[in-house]
User: Fold this.
Amino acid sequence: MENLSWDYILKYVLLGDSATGKSSLLIRLTDDRFDLTEPTLGVQFGSRIISVGEEGKRVKVQCWDTAGTESFRSITSSYFRGAAGALLVYDVTRRESFDHVTSWLEDLRKYADENVSIILVANKIDLCSISPEPVPSIQYGHPFPAPSTPLDTSSSSRSPSPTPPAPTTHRPKDLKLRQVTTMEGALFAKQHGLLYVETSAKEGWGVTDAFEWTAREVLEKVKKGELERRKPGGVKLKEGNPGKTGKCC
Ligand SMILES: Nc1nc2c(ncn2[C@@H]2O[C@H](COP(=O)(O)OP(=O)(O)OP(=O)(O)O)[C@@H](O)[C@H]2O)c(=O)[nH]1
Ligand SMILES: [Mg+2]
Assistant:
């Protein structure tokens, strides 16, 4: 029987432009499947227990998956309050969705607790790569190194990626052009104090990492006393003696 005990409950929100794959990421996390999805109307909820860090703390992530459509913006931003973690998602094949990350981040900073841990999620990498490519030095706890030359963001030279694109001749027909490089995404994350991960909800690449790395950062903050239990920050710990573990329904 599935072990439903937990050490922490954390509230998460998923946000970002419509059709970037937020609901698909959540379904991959909770049900480990990839299905046709309808645009979210307002918000949807999903939850799963994940094991976090070397100590294997059992963390129940309770996720509010918000609609990216502009007309829901005032409703969805009200769900940001009290979140301990946030997944800010864009589609690597749609530059516009990356351009809007700044505005989503502004909303998050405005409505969420100041201690919210945010991970920038570069989704749909399966559309432009046949396997997940290693993203050097940006795993949790390893700061992303600044490039030795300033990043030129002009469209003509927007490719300082550490991983060069696959040669066109070997490119399968259905691969799309990647419009936002690893370097751009990771650098944006670094500059704004966010974690960074590349994912494919379709293939399942990086999805658990996105939720787990965020949880690790939240638990670090709890350890350092930067987050209060049960106070804003969306963290709930098991109560009572250390041997006792919370049960979820
Ligand atoms: N190839 C590919 N398609 C994806 C991926 N993630 C999502 N999609 C597709 O992108 C479309 C939108 O996905 P959703 O998960 O509904 O997007 P959303 O961000 O929840 O959209 P809203 O609810 O409108 O905000 C669907 O057709 C998905 O099947 C992915 O990783 N790879
Ligand atoms: Mg959705």
